[in-house]
Amino acid sequence: MDKIRYGIIGIGAQGSSYARFLTGKPEIPGFELPKGPEHATLGAICDIDEDKKAKYTEIYKDIPFYTDWKELVLSGNVDAVITTVPHYLHTTIAIFCLEHGVPVLVEKPAGVYAKAVREMNECALKHPDVAFGIMFNQRTNVLYKKIREIINSGEMGQIRRSNWIINTWYRPDVYYRQSSWRATWEGEGGGVLVNQAPHQLDLWQWICGIPTKVFAKCRFGFGRNIDVEDDVTIMAEFENGAVGTFITCTHDACGTDRLEIDLDGGKIVVEDSKKATIYRLKEFEQDYNKNLKPEDLFKIMSGNGAGGMYETEEFENTDGWGKQHITVLENFACHILEGTPLLAPGTDGINGVNLCNATLLSAWLSKEVDNPVDEDLYYSELQKRIEEEKNNKAGR
Amino acid sequence: MDKIRYGIIGIGAQGSSYARFLTGKPEIPGFELPKGPEHATLGAICDIDEDKKAKYTEIYKDIPFYTDWKELVLSGNVDAVITTVPHYLHTTIAIFCLEHGVPVLVEKPAGVYAKAVREMNECALKHPDVAFGIMFNQRTNVLYKKIREIINSGEMGQIRRSNWIINTWYRPDVYYRQSSWRATWEGEGGGVLVNQAPHQLDLWQWICGIPTKVFAKCRFGFGRNIDVEDDVTIMAEFENGAVGTFITCTHDACGTDRLEIDLDGGKIVVEDSKKATIYRLKEFEQDYNKNLKPEDLFKIMSGNGAGGMYETEEFENTDGWGKQHITVLENFACHILEGTPLLAPGTDGINGVNLCNATLLSAWLSKEVDNPVDEDLYYSELQKRIEEEKNNKAGR
Q: Above 0.85 for ipTM, yes or no?
């Protein structure tokens, strides 16, 4: 076996992109595809939608199409499965795959509530021989990889503060009306936190660590005809006492994406996920603090900061569209074929779900909560929102 | 009378700058002074420090020098007073001036705790004929003035979110050791919130309104041998439901100053208090939301935001050092002489003090608080910190 045959469960916007990457066949004439993964191909497709069946059996004539995802998993036509389905189903499908020895690459978010994701992870621990990954494609962004390496190396010391504003996903009402499950408590389990921001919720924790406490304010259905959160402000505390903020919304038509991390040894700023600037202090701040003399004060206090104390380095990410997803598809294939380490082990998905759950619970209860939160409490509060949503819809 | 004679109470770093502006006499040879206020001059100086008396009676031979500030106020040598003294004294001196009919320009912050500032403001209301201003010199920054005008005009609609990171004041331990009252609960009543950030606490509220709720985390004596807060993260809620964050610390040697305001009609970003960028949507976001069609979605969702939806305008502030303070000194003089409207009425000082008090109280109690807070509760909590500080000092 030199190529992994992927089975795609759910052939919507994301699933159809993967099909194109894996086959090299653009269904949009004239659309130029990036080079697909070398060690993977398309094995089968599944969807419950009859229109999609008609469409995709026409485009991919030789590829088996299933309407029952369990049939696809057990068909023998696939060496691995990708779950491009509504979020609630990720854990259900992953557990079935793991129990039947079929490698599974889950889409983000790993799930909607921590309880289900924990059960999936426990199942994965029982089946360590079955490959289990998650599509955290943004971990392949060279900027975030490099920043993580710098921070993990310790060369810039401990993190003191981190702030991310990530609003570069404008979603008007027409977007939310695309399908009935979208941006609902029942169908999707949340709004911007479960649909748009999971990558950043993952990257933030991948780079800066897992918060221990969360206070958050969410606006639900702000300017949109939905009941879920579409405007979020998080304040989180980390184990070493560092404080971070994370801001995201879907109504900002001008879009900001700016991550700033303040460390003992300087500062890192990433703008638009495209450009990173490292401000590297020549000594750790603690050492400057210890050694500065009264006569240095005027120099430092006049003007902004102290230019002479640091050097800057810039680097860029120029990855085109599709590159990141293809890298994860290839990595997961090579992991199965050759044991290449996973870019994103499937079990890592729980961190983003935990933080999402803590954020919503804090906003619902109007108080600071521990992270991870009590998963039963979260689940029962979520059920209340599902009930309320039904009543709201009935009243519309 | 064509010039106001200012009496400076407290001739430290700030007071001596004002003396230079008012006399045009630099005590530092070769130092080029900006042009001073046209309608003001130096009437008298007061300080309790004998060394300063020796120094300044030598420099300003014709200017009366007092060691008792009440004597200066009542001397007949001054038409107005400036309070460049430790913050606790601002309200005491201002009340005395108001009661004796002497115009008073208080330094920022207006005071340390809301109770005293409220009493000062009540006194001012009883003496509407006595001019009462506050040195919010940064309100003269053309960027913030223009942004306030834009927002107040309503042309960009309501504010949805505001975020300010203001860390451009690196303060090492040697700074804190300059005088015994600095950065103490007893002497100064706080740290970065009462000393470095009052201008931004004022500007934020001057531009974005007064928060109704505050949740905050503070680090006390982080990396410094002090008991007060030197690292602050605020999450505030405003009357219209908008959420804002405000971040400030004194240990960031690389310094960030970035204000972002998101509105119905676009976005405003100010960097380093020097450059503002206005992203003006061609229609309000609400209208885009209403009118966008499914076929517009792909264009909007691909790439960052939607370039065609807005136009940008940039403007800069190029004010040199001293310009802002001189503008306030001149404005207050013209207010007395000709009734020119005040740039910053003295009573406005309470907003910054309230927000500072709410921030500290929230951090102390680890919960969200209303703004303004219960002033007696704040005062009693402050007294506890003063006691603890005494014990900590005794143990050092």
A: yes
